[in-house]
Structures are given as C-alpha cells and as structure tokens.
Amino acid sequence: MRNGKKNFIIDFDSTFTQVEALDVLAEISLEGHPERKDRIKKIKDITDVGMNGELNLRESLDQRLALLDAHKKDLESLVERLKKQVSKSFKRNKEFFNEHADRIFIISNGFKDFIVPIVSEYHVKPENVFANSFEFDESGKIVGYDRDNALSLNNGKVEQLRKLNLQGDVYVIGDGYTDYEIKVAGLANKFYAFTENVERENILEKADHVTPSLDEFLYINKMNTAISYPKNRINVLLLENVHPRAIEQMKHEGYNVEVYPAGLDEDELCEKIKNVSVLGIRSKTQVTARVLESANRLIAVGAFCIGTNQIDLEACLKKGVAVFNAPFSNTRSVVELAIAEIIALMRKLFDRSTFMHQGKWDKSAKGSFEIRGKSLGIIGYGNIGAQLSVLAESLGLIVYYYDVEEKLALGNARKCHSLQELLSVSDIVTLHVDGRPENKNMFGEEQFNIMRDKAIFLNLSRGHVVDIAALKANIESGKIAGAAIDVFPQEPKSNNEEFISELRTLPNTILSPHIGGSTIEAQENIANFVPNKIMDYINTGSTSNSVNFPNLQLPTLENAHRLIHIHENMPGILARINKVLADHDINIVGQYLKTNEVIGYVITDIDKEYDKEVIKALRNIEHTIKFRVLY
Ligand SMILES: NC(=O)c1ccc[n+]([C@@H]2O[C@H](COP(=O)([O-])OP(=O)(O)OC[C@H]3O[C@@H](n4cnc5c(N)ncnc54)[C@H](O)[C@@H]3O)[C@@H](O)[C@H]2O)c1
Ligand SMILES: O=C(O)[C@H](O)COP(=O)(O)O
C-alpha cells in the first residue's frame, strides 16, 4: 500500500452529512401517508440495526425501500435538505477536499442519485463516488436498485476497495460497521470512527482513533488548514450548576465539556484545572493566583453571573486569561426580589407566616406599614440600583441614592453626596455595591448608628461588605426593624452543606440562600450570553465585554490568518512584532492594538501564505504572555 500518497475513504450517511439520507427521504416521500409516523420509525430502526452490523445489508435496503414508497421527484427535495445538513466540520474544511480531490473517495451503501450532487459541491469527483443506484418504473417511482452492485451487499465496501487497488496509505473515516470492515480486511492503514453526528459503541472500541470531527482527523494527521486547533481538544469545566443551555451550546460548538454541580475549593480546583481551557463558574468558586499557577491551558474564564470579585482579575491578565461575565442578565431578578422583601419586611410577613405554621393567630397592625411615601436609600446606583430606583418609584417610594461614581438620577431619584446623608434620610436602606476588596465591611456599627430608628436594611450585593456582628446587634437592639440578607461572608459550597450564621433565628430577618439571580429567566439569559462571548473570543479574538482584557471588537476573518499576541504592556512590542513580520516578508492585511495597565493585545491579520518560522519568532518575542493563530 505504500508509496507515500494518502487516500481518504469517506462514508456518506451520518459522516459526510449529519443524517441518514433514507431517513430524510422517508420524511419527504411519506408526507400525508396514513402510516407516516409508524413507517418513519420502522425505517430508522432498520437503519440503526444495519449500521451496527446486526442486519444483512440487502435485507435492510429491501425493507426500507418497500416502506419508503418514494418517487424520483422526492429526490430533488432530498438533495436540497441534505445540502443544508452537511457535517459542520466538513463545511469548515472545504479546502481539504479541494486540495486532495484526486485521492478522496466516497464509498457508501447509500445511493449515488443523492450523494453525487452533495459531494460535488465539495470538489469530490463524481467518478470517485462509489454507491448504489436507484431503479425507477415508468412513472418515476423507486422500485429497486442495481442488484449487481457490490455495495448493496454485506462486505461490499471491502470488495469495492479491492477493485480500486489504491496505491499509498488508506485512511477510512466513517461511523458504521461497514467502514470498520475495510480495516479488518487489511485494506486500510487506519479506521477513524467519526462521532460528530452519531456514536456507535461497538464501533468506538474497534477504531484506531475516535475523531469527533474532521478537524481532529486533520489535526492528528498534520493536515489542518482551515482551523487552528480542533475544538474537541478544548476542555471546558463548568461548575456550580450552570444552566443546561450553556452546556448544550458549548457541546454544540464541539468542545469537550465536563460539568460539576457544586463549587470546588482551592485545592480541588488546582488539581482539576490543569487540562482546562475554559472554566465556567458562578459566585462561589474562587479563582485565585494559586489556582491560575496550575492552569497551564486556560484561555478564558466565564463568570455565569454578574459579580467577578471571586476571580483574581489581575492574575488572570498576567497569565493572558480573558474573563467574561453576564453584566445584566440577572439584574431584573435581583430587583424583583428586593421589592418583594421590602414589602414583606414592612409587614413582618415572614414572622407572621411562621407563627401561623405554629398555630399562632396574631392579627394586629402594630409595626406594619405601607411602602407608599417611605424613603428608600439605594447604595450603589449601578445596573441593579438604577433599575430598583425606577420600579420603587412607580410603587410610591421616595428614592435616594449614593454612589462613589457620578451617576445619572433616573426619574425623581435624589442624589446624596455622602453615605451619611443617605443613611440619615432613608426608612429603608438597600446595598447594591460591587464586591471590590475595598468594600469589605464598608457597612458596620458606624453606619447602623447613623440610620433612622426602626429602619429596614437589605443586602443583596456581596456578603463581605457588611459587618455581620454589627448587623446582629442592631437587629437585637431593635434599631433595625427588619433585614433581608441574600449574601453572606461564608456560604455553603453546595446544597448539601449546612448554612451557619449568627443571623439565624433573629426576628423579622429574611435569610435567603444567595438567590437574587436564581430565576429560570436569569439563568437562561446568562447561559445564552456568556458562552457566546467565550466562543467569539476563541474563534475571532474579539474581547468585547471582557471584564479584564482591553475590549476589541474585530471584523470577521476573511481569506487571512489572524495572529493573536498577548504581551506584558512594555514599550516597543508592536514594533518588534512588525519587524518579525517584515523580516519574513509577510503582508499585513489588518492590525488592531489595545492596551491596559497590565497587558497589550495585538491582533494582526496576514496573507494566507507565510513561512511557519514566523510563528516561532513571534512566540519568542520577549514579554510575550500568550500567542495563538486563527486560520
Ligand atoms: N444576590 C444576588 O444573587 C446578586 C445577583 C446579581 C448581582 N449581585 C451583586 O450585586 C451587586 C451590584 O450589581 P450591579 O450589576 O448593579 O453592579 P454595577 O457594577 O452595575 O453597580 C455597582 C455600583 O456600585 C457602586 N459602588 C461601588 N462601591 C461603592 C461604595 N462603596 N459606595 C457607593 N457606591 C459604590 C459602583 O460605582 C457601581 O455604580 C454586585 O456586587 C453583584 O455581584 C448579587
Ligand atoms: O454575581 C451575581 O450575579 C450574583 O451574586 C449571583 O451569583 P450566582 O450565580 O452564584 O447565584
């Protein structure tokens, strides 16, 4: 077989296309048929049994054709549908088909009638397609197939390949038993089980290599021209029960996704993160500098929440790791909870409900108030604070706010020039500051002292911003008439751990398990938002909305290679990059640079033809943190 040349034998159904063509033909030809559902199911079952090598091929073809009741005109619709269902990694790698057109053979137990129109669009030569042919009656009805064709028989692929007598190495890519048989017959060097569309257990065990996409096949054979790195090699670790939609999206992108329902502590994460390229967390997992030391493959961290104080953003920058979050996806959920809690606290609703469950009827208006006309003081007038301001005003509250930054007052909200001013005018005080380290214990005895007597206090921001002992003392003394706390300095890692806090059992105190953002809507929004940011970063280098990287929104890459260079922000690096490119005679198609205090982020699009040595030279530029190429 050896003469240095490589031949590629590729299966059609569920490999070249995502589907089994006869299954799709059934959906078309049986349109309006009284037994449609039943027949389609039968056809699919027969296909599966056949693909696993458990049913004689001719039997399987005969049975399916009889059930199909198909016509020549159905084939036109079939081709149109199949064109849209070519496997994604095949679509990405059209160049491979072009480059190796002479040596690519489609060998299939399907039918040339629909295979040729599909594969010809990928430069596959019609004479390199080996498959069955339909037979029609005068009216155009499909009545059979060419029974002399070996491909309608078991072991037909083997026989066909023998006839071809190919010179050189033979690589078989397919998802079924009949593809594996070629290797067994000694006619192929390697059999690659293709699992992008279906996984058949009995085939996986037998394969020389499992290839979840054509990218992987090309990568291991050093033939990739269309993408830089197979996506199945990108390991994603998603912690803290992120919404299934996020898992689905990242799997759909082709990543290798591992999911863990709870948070991990530092030691566990140091171990787990070693092979991880993308880490997804929520508010609990601490991504510390120590964790990052073990994270040698990490490209990006996704915070599937708003807060990013749990991540050492500077250490991420120094390591060239981009961080993304969902800055507004759960804003509304927090605001709604705050409103509900303000009303519940003003009416002592939770205590009253608890009494009722204990059989105590305590009907009284004592200590219960409407919220209308009361003053609400919002500390931190960011996304949540500002939205709360609007909703609260519409309920008749008089809104005051205080923020360390200059903020536009919405509606009739009144700006306070100091925290003291806000505390002295508010009947209800609610905290919506971010979790920056300087905010640790920003609210303690001194601030409670300034508050009005019998005021209400809420914290739905971060646990460490409030001095819990001071809060407890002020609730016990009656200075604070009610409190709602959703976030705590120490929170359990999972739902299986006990919640320990001094605040337990205090009167008119609502304690909730950090659920401000825990609504179906918010979690779905987050799961749609964050994966897209990460995938965009990996696929194009775009950093728009990144929490720590300089934000660059990039044009899509067309007919060029993109060099992504992350370096320590030192003078002269751009000049050095361009010198390397000039020394190698490389034409720059576009270049984008943005820096922040820590890093420089340079994107250079270059002409497709380049000397591979240039990559080494760019990697070796002093102060380079990370470098990658997008094809
Ligand atoms: N309980 C939950 O489940 C939940 C859900 C979402 C967000 N959060 C938390 O809520 C907080 C606010 O979220 P956001 O989206 O509005 O953030 P944001 O960044 O839009 O707003 C925070 C605001 O606080 C201001 N600020 C910071 N420190 C301050 C201080 N000491 N005094 C006054 N103002 C200060 C900032 O200038 C900013 O305007 C964050 O801590 C976030 O993590 C909690
Ligand atoms: O920062 C946030 O968005 C909130 O604290 C919610 O965090 P969670 O996703 O861990 O509930």
Descriptive labels:
Rossmann fold, binds nicotinamide-adenine-dinucleotide, elongated, phosphoglycerate dehydrogenase activity, alpha/beta, 631 residues, D-isomer_DH_NAD-bd, binds 3-phosphoglyceric acid, 7-stranded parallel β-sheet, 4 domains, 6-stranded parallel β-sheet, NAD binding, 25 helices
Please tell me the overall pLDDT: 94
Largest sheet properties:
7 strands, parallel
As a percent range, the share of strand residues is 15-25%
In which range does the helix fraction lie?
Answer: 25-40%
Neighbour order of strands in the largest sheet: 16-15-14-17-18-19-20
Distance between the termini: 32 Å
Output the radius of gyration: 32 Å
Instruction: Identify the CATH homologous superfamily of the largest domain.
Output: HAD superfamily/HAD-like
Bound molecules: nicotinamide-adenine-dinucleotide, 3-phosphoglyceric acid
Structure classification: alpha/beta
Determine the number of helices (DSSP H or I, runs of at least 4 residues).
Answer: 25
CATH architecture of the largest domain: 3-Layer(aba) Sandwich
CATH class of the largest domain: Alpha Beta
CATH topology of the largest domain: Rossmann fold
Poorly predicted regions = none
Number of domains: 4
